[in-house]
Amino acid sequence: MSIICESIxxxxxxxxxxxxxxxxxxxxxxxxxxxxRESNNFRFAVFRLxxxxxxxxxxxLRKGQLEKYNNAFVISESRKTELLxxxxxxxxxxxxxxxxxxxxxxxxxxxxxxxxxxxxxxRKRKKFMNCGxxxxxxxxHMIRGFIQDAMIELVxxxxxxxxxxxxxxxxxxxxxxxxxxxxxxxxxxAKKAALIEGADMQLxxxxxxxxxxxxxIGDGCRPPSIRNKLVQYTGGQACIWTLAxxxxxxxxxxxxxxxxxxxxxxxxxxxxxxDVIVIDxxxxxxxxxxxxxxxxxxxxxxYKLPIGxxxxxxxxxxxxxxxxxxxxxxxxxxxxxxxxxKYLTTWHWLKVTTSGEPVYDLDSPHKxxxxxxxxxxxxxxxxxxxxxAIAVKQLPHHRTIxxxxxxxxxxxxxxxxxxxxxxxPDSQCLEMFARNLVPGWTVWGNEVLKFQHVDYFVRQ
Length: 460
What we know:
Elements: E1 3-7, E2 10-13, H1 15-21, E3 26-27, H2 34-37, H3 40-43, E4 44-45, E5 47-49, H4 63-72, E6 73-74, H5 77-85, H6 87-96, H7 102-106, E7 113-114, H8 131-160, H9 167-174, H10 188-193, E8 214-217, E9 230-233, E10 238-243, E11 246-250, E12 254-258, H11 265-268, E13 274-279, H12 286-291, H13 307-310, E14 311-321, H14 325-339, E15 341-351, E16 370-378, E17 400-403, H15 416-419, E18 429-432, E19 442-445, E20 457-459
Parallel strand pairs: 2-17, 3-10, 8-9, 12-19, 13-14, 13-18, 15-17, 18-19
Antiparallel strand pairs: 1-2, 3-4, 5-20, 6-7, 9-12, 10-11, 14-16, 15-16
């Protein structure tokens, strides 16, 4: 079960185990010889995500912050343990200061020898916030209490159930001697795992285009091509497909469409509608633009999404958003009304380390440790879907999802288990701008198979 615990304040979710349970029994019969195929011992295998992807053991620090910390002191081996253990408690205070002092780190005035260096140039700070920054700060003050209360309660339960790493174990690992005498980045393995290239999705652009909009695939079969086609895998077991000379793990009972933004017709063909639509838009973002992680869309591009054609009456619409209030206002005041969606509430996703500490300080002026989910529903004359009404009235306000994040950029936790209690059992669910598949769901994006590549998994 991916939900470790639940309270009136939110959920503590195990993102990693949710993905792993989809691949506890994977049909690999295409990759064994005839003699082995007859035995279940060889026909099926267990796969799980690379565990290093979730090895977030300390708050996120920029490379410059780590280097500044490493160069600050020449530290004796006997004092290294105490200094490293203090890192998680004093990172914001100590790293923001121009020069770290022994008293600031240890609190006992103990003398240590600082490395002589030139006084660094101080970055000029803005004296006044602009309008967007002030709106973001006001909103943070409004929701801070909800997130903090949920964090305290859910993390405590997680510690009692041993979901989070014991602080003594963390202290022991931080006290391990370093060959260069510096401060190790304890998230380094997670960052390295996130650099896995996986599949080149552009390879599928070379596939021959056919006139078929939809392909239904059963057990033991493979699609001849996937470009611009709604592929429905009806198999009862997860399996491995070889596509464009690369291998992908395909969960059971899933559907997907790999296409660009301009070709959503296969989703609409046949008049199929959905009771839940989860959208993770590639918002314009300076960081993403600099790293070139994926193609971004402007706010106005999102107007073109055919939500009206895809949504059933009463459809629950969930949109991931950052903490930019300009973005939130655009969703609530312009995009939702354009889609015919009535805003209901906002939930929050709090990212924590394996010990339950926020990945950034909750009040950090630069980056917040949480993201938001804006939730609405489609209002029509008949507010009942053919498959049953969405339980709109039961939606709680300002719930918080707490989880250890995947180190892959913008990889959100699955919402399958969380939304179950608010929707009908036979609801049709769609995720847009997805980069991985979900059992029982239909997903669309121009990289829907990216994180299904076998390189992201290990075989047990």
